Amino acid sequence: MGAVRVHRVVEGPEDGPVVVFAGSLGSDLRMWEPQVAPLAGRGYRVVRYDTRGHGASPVPPAPYTLDDLGADFVALLDDLGVERAHLVGLSLGGMTGMWLGVHAPERIESLVLCCTSAKLGPPSMWAERARKVRAEGTASVAEAGVGRWLTEPYAKSHPDVAEFLRAMIAAVPAEGYAACCEVIERMDQLDTLPKISAPTLVIAGADDPSTPPAGHADLIADGIPGARLEVVANAAHLGNYEQPAEFTRLILEHLERV
Question: Is 110 helix (H, G, I), strand (E, B) or coil?
Fold first, then answer.
């Protein structure tokens, strides 16, 4: 399967260093809203995009592979006339970032890998979720998704945010969501992490039930030469949304250090 032209939004100064934000399974580019103004205000050209099968991007027929998701990213850079970019990816976006760090290092200035994993089993769970979504739609997994994305105290005190994110998941095309579940089902990047040479920051949510720091973020940080790990308190899987100030601070600090 060839690359698809993903839906994107570009903000910030045209001559600024380019930072591309890659989102999680079940999200669209609005998940990065908290990071846009702070980065654009610091002179960065901020690019957000919807993963294939999500948001306003095309929904090609399954199967998808991590190679496909990486090719979509490279095609996006080509379309924008960008040679190299910083990539900030969360969950599935971080998995795409690791693939790019190995297979397209010439296009990656640096990586920020948030709330993600290089191998996220068990495969049977992802196969079952794909089956459920194809049979019942993404609304059937939206409530559980928000339960992983936000800590319970935050969701209870911010019901409007919880409902916004629930609707975001429910709006994802079923086939796109299911096909990306199958990408994660087949993914194992642990052995290739040492090949990544881009300066890398790994950010984990201390209360992330999907990709807890132990067994996920720590393995990535240990596997990538020179990578640094930061764990953010009171953050579940969508840590950039629940703790935007701390995630944004860490991202900016990394970009400026690079």
Answer: strand
Q: Which residue has the tokens 């996220």?
A: 120
Closest by Cα among 27, 45, 49, 23 to 36: 45
Q: Supply the DSSP string of 57-79, one letter for each residue.
A: S--PPSP--HHHHHHHHHHHHHH
Full DSSP string of 122-157: -HHHHHHHHHHHHHH-THHHHHHHHHHHS-HHHHHH
**Domain assignments of the chain as residue spans, ordered by start:** 8-257
Tokens of 121: 């089993």
pLDDT digits 0-9 by tens, 96-154: 999 999 999 999 999 999 999 999 999 999 999 999 999 999 999 999 999 999 999 99
* Residue type for position 3: A
Domain 8-257: homologous superfamily in CATH: Alpha/Beta hydrolase fold, catalytic domain (3.40.50.1820)
In the DSSP assignment, the letter for residue 45 is E
Beta bridge pairs of residue 48: 9, 21
Sheet holding 200-205, edge to edge: 8-11, 45-49, 18-22, 85-90, 108-114, 200-205, 228-232
Task: Check if the beta carbon of residue 133 is closer than 8 Å to that of residue 178.
Answer: yes
